[in-house]
């Protein structure tokens, strides 16, 4: 009965976002206890705390792009648009165009990139995040950065990972900007 209910939820997600939930169904059908633990993890991944949608999705999108899973990136972009971010803002996040982002979103992009690169400059940005959103905001960004890296790793481990060469924004195809060097730009005044 539990498997049936969870599978219906997965199918609803698949239909809503045009997202292949096969890896989750494999977990569900192979090991119910593992699926329940994965469901618990998703509670952490969905945490939004006191953070506005813009900075939250800036961190989620940049983290998912860093680990290069196309379907995951597309899903998070759809969720960002559903949360009210404009296509222009989502595009700027994907392309790391900091000049086109409000200061709080540029800060989230820069922080995410520096954290993922293990760059010591993340420390100064962390101080700005604490000043802006407090420790709850920092925890929320930390959850977004770390949790959204799990999905690509899990999918690639199970054989479902697919590289991301472009992300669809309505009728446009956007190539995600990846850099080994953390993002810098016009809104880099925070660092």
Description:
The chain has 191 residues and is mostly helical. The protein has two domains: 1-45, no CATH class; 48-190, AhpD-like, CATH 1.20.1290. 65% of the residues lie in helices and 3% in strands. It contains eight helices and two strands; from the N terminus they run ααααααααββ. The chain has a two-stranded antiparallel sheet with strand order 1-2. Helix 1 (2-17) packs antiparallel against helix 2 (22-30), helix 2 crosses helix 3 (32-45) and helix 7 packs across helix 8. It is globular.
Oligomer: single chain
Write the CATH fold name of the largest domain.
AhpD-like
Please provide the count of β strands.
2
Pick out the low-confidence regions: 186-191
Strand content: under 5%
Give the SSE string: HHHHHHHHEE
Biggest sheet, open or closed, and with what strands and sense? 2 strands, antiparallel
How many individual domains? 2
Please tell me what the overall shape is. Answer: globular
- Mean pLDDT equals 90
Number of contiguous helices = 8
Strands of the biggest beta sheet: in what spatial order?
A: 1-2
Distance between the termini: 52 Å
**CATH architecture classification of the largest domain:** Up-down Bundle
Helix content: 55-70%
Defining traits:
single chain, about 190 residues, about 65% helix, 8 helices, AhpD-like
